[in-house]
């Protein structure tokens, strides 16, 4: 998922050691802490896009949706490695697929109620998936969920979507029939797009999420003021792993303050948490590090920040030119721009550390071989540039206007000029930049972007960002910004995907090779993997960091 | 010539310290010049403004020979010598967590006099370079604005009728559009061009946007002056002598409205400098790779609590520049004293 | 007189209409801003984008889209932001208005009081050091960029000297509604009030001083003094009242501009969620419906105050012929 305007997505971490948390190691935690009180979180702005849970693609809202709604399966609400595991949620158990991976049979737990008091049935499940198509603007309906039989037809004629063939309801059993096997089907069921809504939910975008089965329910969604959850009176805990009862009685997120004021309020205890979507200003880091170190938690993220090189237009349609930039880039300087080595780690490759398929690899450094980046090799870069014969070509360096991102661009412009090209800035406002750089007709040679995982699968990075079918010419929606398409690497990706249905470990080995092969082709200048800085109030106990959902709001204890 | 030949309501207003004999026989322009030269405060302000302009335009000299720095690159891994020791320009944060990267603060020496910004650049040198852009845009847009507004007002006031109606309606439209909104809208659109017709980094964009936005401010008073001058007897006299429209406009009316424009000019420069800094602060004025005082204040926003000088220094420059222009404008107005009903007759 | 008023009102409506068209065109001319793309969320497939475009009527011709937007803004009042569909534009402006009004009214009270004081004092003490001193202060006030002053104020009151008795009472940036907690409302607004009024105190003090000086040499003032009236009475009852015409008309215009969102920089620096901040945020994200609404709102106040001022001026000074 793209971190848009500082809205990060889900993250995978195998070990959530929080540096600076007083040294306590957070293991897979069972809910502890005291019940009661109001958890006050702050965010600069409301989540962007539609509030509808089947449309919204921001982690900011997902952190709330995971405690108001449930899917058939879900990522465990726990910290550490446990938080990356899929556990049964509304279903009694995770089924093994039959029929070559195309049939999945779930049994619903009995007696689960929505916050309106009505009981969950199989019809609600079927209606939920049909609604995914009917509303017309669910982002992944046509890419993930159309694997369900009838899904392709639903994409074409959404209003009359009928998934009776694809989802068969029989009492408490719901059976999914897929048109093709999908190794990531369970992951996709665990995301809020597929959280179960009452069948009576109208098939149009809602301004506040509808009733759900989780321990909390939505009572307010005012984009200029706040969003608010209170306890769901009909909730009875059925699985402490999948959906534990929460600690606070009320969970609040207030909007509108500047990030500077938010930091001050959390430091002073007037609020409990600064939303992960807000970036803590650089000039407060010192103060946090000295006076409020106990309130700060630093968490590793599975994300990569990079510049995409357009592989279809000069100069970067030339492999040597692309490799030259990679050799010339001083990743330490870039790390400094983004807050220093404690918050960022240089990288040369696509996949982030501690991710399935990750094997350290960095050819673009002085003395390569260790897999780690150490220093730029300017001499080699210059040599490659002259060999490429692309000197004098113009390059538009495109970033958004966030100060830190602009600074990254401003680092590259003189660097590219010194290598013999003509680099010019093109800084666009956040809301325009991401769709703009995806559209090939804009011919951006060098574009800033980032990617955070949707769920822990190598294809979520490699296929979505560098696969041939992710490049749509002249479209604002073409996540393969580098326009990269290499037949043999694509064949490897396909092989990894099919292997993944039956043998994930072997698949990950192939993905590692894909990662390295892609890195050799240098469609990106991969820069660094960031860490997340979390600021919480002094009174907040039971801080639980899930690699998938970040801070588990309902586990925090404020009494 | 006989200034006082027309009626008892044509009092001359004397400036303090002047005697009637001293001013008899002198043209209003020379009188104004004399008064201005006598006005120490106004001269001081002019001197300050000139000093600031000179300083800013010698920015390259400062950068190369005094501070030994490159202003438009990035210097993240650079080092510098302070008190004999070599220090990193951007240092890793301290405290328990070691997070963040801090640029060095003011050294009060020739290198990094007031410290570094987040990219490792010498702020003092950048402030001087920024002054070049801010002053160029300020003076340029004020000049363009005054020129166009005067021309339009002249035509509208002189020809009246349809010309006047059309121009005045357009001016009303621009005037009614909230100033900042109009400036911000135009800038945003021009900067978001994805198929650039105009180079978004060009300094002409903020110059022209600001000039357009303030045209009504100059247009209105000048038009009023044109209208009232038109009614004066000497204009009627010239008409009866058979003067053509063009001659009337340039020989009779323009000199009389010139004093209004001359008074407005320094005040408009002050206004345009402030507006440019506001637009640049909001991110839609001057663009990379250029710097202006407003963009440096924006750079300083993220460093406000740790390195406040980055934001304070350009602000002080703006205050001094605008202050000197305001004092100068006052002085010019006192010297010209438009309320003086000194008649200018045809030679 | 009535005819004059009616003509002004008609002119006002025409100007507002022209502004809406102008705004719509300005922002339409920005390629790269595709609201359908924004609505469709993150990484939609192209079919979804096309469907969304059709659903929101974004594939209709320009005049139709303009008419639709105007209808939704004024008639059905359900115009929705491009950034977040739960954000209805008209209620958002309604919610932001009290914040702007609080800021602007408080600052206005401050600047009226202090500019009159300063202007009068400068005239009373003309010839001594007080006059030029006050005028220099006034000049400095109008020479400071308001956003910079605000930043410096934040730096001093919230960081550098926050722990001293001087500023420990200053709350973090933000707004507390009057109805919720009057004391906090007041505390949160003091520094913004002072910052915003500094510019205007300087300006109005100078205007008032110039007008007072002009009036001072008029015959009727000399007569009043000759009659033996005290200087204070002469000042207040005779001089001030006659000098206030310019003051009042300028005040009307400035107040109109500020209420219409002209205090945008102050609101942004102090984190006050008023109309100015709403405007600024919407411009950052190119959120056309909100931009349109805030521009109309701002233009409305400017034109109406302009018309009111013209009418008041004409009444106050019968010498002025309405043009």
Structure description:
The complex is a heterotrimer of chains A (559), B (347) and C (323). Chain A is an alpha+beta fold and 559 residues long. Chain A is built from 14 helices and 19 strands. Chain A has helices spanning 59-68, 122-134, 151-156, 185-189, 259-267, 285-291, 319-328, 331-337, 378-388, 403-418, 430-438, 458-466, 487-502, 504-521; strands at 38-43, 73-75, 86-88, 103-107, 167-170, 173-177, 216-222, 226-231, 250-255, 273-274, 296-300, 303-309, 344-346, 394-400, 422-428, 446-452, 524-535, 545-546, 550-551. Chain B is elongated. With 323 residues, chain C is mainly alpha-helical. In chain C, helix 1 (2-28) packs antiparallel against helix 13 and helix 9 (219-226) crosses helix 10 (231-262). The longest helix of chain C is centred in the first third of the chain and has 36 residues, at 89-124. Classes of the chains: A alpha+beta (559), B mainly alpha (347), C mainly alpha (323). At the A-C interface, helix 5 and helix 11 of A face helix 2, helix 3, helix 5 and helix 12 of C.
Quick gist of this model?
Chain B contains 12 helices and 4 strands; from the N terminus they run H-H-H-H-E-E-E-E-H-H-H-H-H-H-H-H. Chain B is mainly alpha-helical and 347 residues long. In chain B, strand 1 and strand 2 (85-88) form a beta hairpin.
Features:
heterotrimer, A: 559 residues, alpha+beta, seven-stranded mixed β-sheet, five-stranded mixed β-sheet, 14 helices, 18% strand, B: 347 residues, mainly alpha, two-stranded antiparallel sheet, two-stranded antiparallel ribbon, 62% helix, disordered N terminus
Structural topology:
The complex is a heterotrimer of chains A (559), B (347) and C (323).
Chain A: E1 38-43, H1 59-68, E2 73-75, E3 86-88, E4 103-107, H2 122-134, H3 151-156, E5 167-170, E6 173-177, H4 185-189, E7 216-222, E8 226-231, E9 250-255, H5 259-267, E10 273-274, H6 285-291, E11 296-300, E12 303-309, H7 319-328, H8 331-337, E13 344-346, H9 378-388, E14 394-400, H10 403-418, E15 422-428, H11 430-438, E16 446-452, H12 458-466, H13 487-502, H14 504-521, E17 524-535, E18 545-546, E19 550-551
Parallel strand pairs in A: 1-9, 1-10, 14-15, 14-16
Antiparallel strand pairs in A: 2-3, 4-6, 5-6, 7-8, 8-9, 11-17, 12-16, 12-17, 13-17, 18-19
Chain B: H1 20-23, H2 28-38, H3 40-57, H4 59-66, E1 79-82, E2 85-88, E3 90-92, E4 101-103, H5 123-159, H6 161-176, H7 179-191, H8 204-230, H9 233-240, H10 245-281, H11 293-301, H12 309-336
Antiparallel strand pairs in B: 1-2, 3-4
Helix pairs in contact in B: 2-12, 3-5, 3-12, 4-5, 5-6, 5-8, 5-10, 5-11, 5-12, 6-8, 7-8, 8-10, 10-11, 10-12, 11-12
Chain C: H1 2-28, H2 35-39, H3 46-55, H4 62-75, H5 89-124, H6 130-143, H7 146-160, H8 182-216, H9 219-226, H10 231-262, H11 264-270, H12 275-284, H13 288-316
Helix pairs in contact in C: 1-13, 5-6, 5-8, 5-10, 6-8, 7-8, 7-11, 8-10, 9-10, 10-12, 10-13, 11-12, 12-13
């Amino acid at each position: 998922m793209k971190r848009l305007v500082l809205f990060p997505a889900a993250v995978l971490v195998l070990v959530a050691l929080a540096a600076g948390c007083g040294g306590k190691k957070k293991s897979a935690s069972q809910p502890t802490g005291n019940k009661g009180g109001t958890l006050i979180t702050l965010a600069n702005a409301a989540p962007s896009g539609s509030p509808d849970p089947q449309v919204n693609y921001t982690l900011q809202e997902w952190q709330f949706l995971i405690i108001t709604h449930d899917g058939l399966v879900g990522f465990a609400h726990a910290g550490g490695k446990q938080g990356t595991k899929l556990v049964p949620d509304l279903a009694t158990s995770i089924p093994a697929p039959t029929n070559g991976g195309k049939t999945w049979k779930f049994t619903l737990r009995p007696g689960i109620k929505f916050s309106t008091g009505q009981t969950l049935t199989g019809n609600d499940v079927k209606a939920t998936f049909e609604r995914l198509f009917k509303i017309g603007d669910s982002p992944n309906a046509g890419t993930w969920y159309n694997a369900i039989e009838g899904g392709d037809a639903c994409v074409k004629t959404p209003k009359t979507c009928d998934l009776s063939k694809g989802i068969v309801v029989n009492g408490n059993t719901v059976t999914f029939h897929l048109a093709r096997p999908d190794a990531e089907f369970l992951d996709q069921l665990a995301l809020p797009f597929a959280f179960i809504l009452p069948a009576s939910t109208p098939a149009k975008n809602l301004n506040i999420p509808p009733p759900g089965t989780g321990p909390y329910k939505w009572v307010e969604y005012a984009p200029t003021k706040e969003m608010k959850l209170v306890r769901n009176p009909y909730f009875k805990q059925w699985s402490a792993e999948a959906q534990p009862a929460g600690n606070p009685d009320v969970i609040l997120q207030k909007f509108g303050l500047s990030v500077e004021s938010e930091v001050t309020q959390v430091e002073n205890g007037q609020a409990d948490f600064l939303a992960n979507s807000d970036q803590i200003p650089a000039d407060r880091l010192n103060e946090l590090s000295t006076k409020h170190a106990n309130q700060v938690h630093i968490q590793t993220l599975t994300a990569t920040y990079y510049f995409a090189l357009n592989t279809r237009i000069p100069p970067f349609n030339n492999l040597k030119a692309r490799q030259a930039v990679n050799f010339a880039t001083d990743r330490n300087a870039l790390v400094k721009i983004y807050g220093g080595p404690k918050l960022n780690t240089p990288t040369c490759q696509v996949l982030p550390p501690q991710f399935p398929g990750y094997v350290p690899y960095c050819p673009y450094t002085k003395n390569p071989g260790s897999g780690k980046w150490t220093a730029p090799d300017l001499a080699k870069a210059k040599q490659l540039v002259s060999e490429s014969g692309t000197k004098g070509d113009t390059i538009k360096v495109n970033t958004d206007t966030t100060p830190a991102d602009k600074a990254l661009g401003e680092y590259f412009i003189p660097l590219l000029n010194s290598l013999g090209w003509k680099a010019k800035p093109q800084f666009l406002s956040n809301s325009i930049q991401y769709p703009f750089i995806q559209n090939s007709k804009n011919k951006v040679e060098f574009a800033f972007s980032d990617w955070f995982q949707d769920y822990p699968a190598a294809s979520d990075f490699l296929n979505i960002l560098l696969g041939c079918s992710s490049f749509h010419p002249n479209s604002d929606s073409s996540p393969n910004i580098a326009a990269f398409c290499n037949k043999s690497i694509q064949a490897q990706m396909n092989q990894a995907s099919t292997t993944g249905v039956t043998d994930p470990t072997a698949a990950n080995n192939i993905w590692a090779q894909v990662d390295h092969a892609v890195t050799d082709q240098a469609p990106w200048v991969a820069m660094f993997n960031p860490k997340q800085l979390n600021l919480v109030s002094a009174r907040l106990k039971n801080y639980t960091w899930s690699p998938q959902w970040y801070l588990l709001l309902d586990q925090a204890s404020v009494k | 010539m006989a200034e006082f030949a027309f009626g008892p309501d044509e009092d001359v207003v004397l400036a303090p310290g002047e005697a009637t004999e001293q001013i008899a026989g002198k043209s209003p322009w020379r009188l104004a010049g004399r008064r201005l030269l006598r006005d120490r405060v106004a001269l001081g302000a002019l001197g300050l403004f000139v000093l600031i302009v000179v300083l800013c335009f010698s920015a390259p000299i400062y950068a190369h020979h005094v501070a030994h720095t490159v202003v438009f690159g990035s210097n993240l891994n650079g080092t510098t010598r302070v008190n004999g020791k070599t220090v990193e320009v951007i240092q890793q944060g301290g405290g328990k967590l070691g997070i963040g990267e801090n640029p060095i603060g003011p050294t009060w020496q020739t290198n990094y006099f007031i410290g570094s910004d987040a990219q490792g650049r010498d702020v003092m040198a950048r402030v001087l370079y920024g002054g070049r852009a801010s002053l160029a845009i300020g003076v340029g847009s004020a000049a363009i604005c005054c020129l166009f507004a005067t021309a339009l007002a002249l035509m509208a006031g002189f020809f009246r009728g349809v010309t006047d109606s059309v121009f005045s309606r357009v001016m009303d439209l621009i005037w009614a559009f909230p100033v900042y909104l109009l400036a911000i809208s135009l800038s945003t659109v021009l900067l978001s061009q994805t198929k650039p017709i105009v180079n978004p980094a060009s300094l002409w964009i903020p110059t022209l946007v600001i000039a357009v936005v303030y045209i009504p401010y100059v247009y209105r008073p000048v038009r009023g002056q044109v209208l009232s001058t038109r009614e004066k007897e000497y204009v009627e006299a010239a008409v009866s002598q058979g003067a053509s429209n063009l001659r009337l406009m340039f020989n009779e009316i323009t000199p009389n409205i010139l004093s209004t424009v001359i008074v407005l000019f320094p005040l408009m420069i002050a206004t345009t400098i402030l507006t440019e800094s506001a637009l640049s602060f909001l991110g839609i004025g001057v663009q990379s790779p250029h710097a202006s005082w407003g963009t440096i204040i924006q750079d300083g926003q993220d460093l406000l609590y740790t390195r406040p000088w980055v934001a304070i220094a350009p602000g002080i420059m703006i205050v001094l520049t605008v202050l000197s222009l305001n004092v100068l404008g006052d002085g010019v107005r006192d010297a010209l004293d438009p309320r003086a009903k000194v008649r200018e007759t045809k030679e | 007189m009535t005819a004059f008023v009616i003509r002004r009102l008609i002119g006002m409506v025409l100007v507002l209409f022209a502004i809406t068209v102008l705004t719509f065109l300005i922002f339409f001319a920005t390629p790269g801003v595709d609201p359908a793309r924004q609505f469709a969320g993150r990484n939609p497939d192209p079919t979804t984008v096309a469907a969304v475009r059709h659903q929101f009527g974004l594939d209709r011709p320009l005049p139709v889209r303009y008419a639709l937007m105007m209808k939704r803004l004024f008639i059905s009042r359900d115009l929705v932001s491009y950034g977040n569909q739960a954000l209805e534009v008209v209620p958002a402006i309604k919610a932001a208005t009290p914040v702007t009004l609080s800021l602007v009214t408080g600052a206005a009270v401050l600047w009226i009081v202090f500019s009159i004081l300063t202007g009068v004092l400068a005239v009373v003490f003309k010839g001594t050091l007080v006059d030029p001193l006050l005028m220099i202060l006034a000049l400095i006030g109008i020479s400071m960029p308001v956003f910079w002053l605000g930043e410096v104020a934040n730096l001093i009151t919230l960081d550098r000297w926050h722990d001293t008795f001087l500023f420990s009472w200053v709350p973090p940036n933000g707004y507390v509604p009057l109805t919720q907690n009057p004391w906090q409302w007041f505390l949160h607004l003091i520094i913004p009030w002072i910052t915003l009024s500094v510019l205007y105190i300087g300006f109005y003090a100078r205007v008032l001083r110039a007008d007072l000086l002009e009036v001072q040499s008029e015959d009727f003032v000399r007569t009043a003094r000759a009659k033996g009236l005290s200087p204070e009475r002469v000042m207040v009852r005779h001089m001030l009242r006659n000098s206030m015409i310019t003051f009042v008309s300028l005040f009307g215009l400035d107040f109109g501009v500020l209420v219409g969102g002209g205090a945008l920089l102050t609101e942004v620096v102090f984190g006050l969620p008023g109309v100015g901040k709403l405007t600024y945020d919407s411009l950052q994200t190119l959120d056309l419906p909100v931009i349109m609404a805030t521009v109309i709102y701002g233009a409305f106040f400017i034109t109406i105050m302009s018309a009111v001022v013209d009418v008041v001026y004409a009444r106050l000074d019968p010498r002025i012929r309405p043009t």
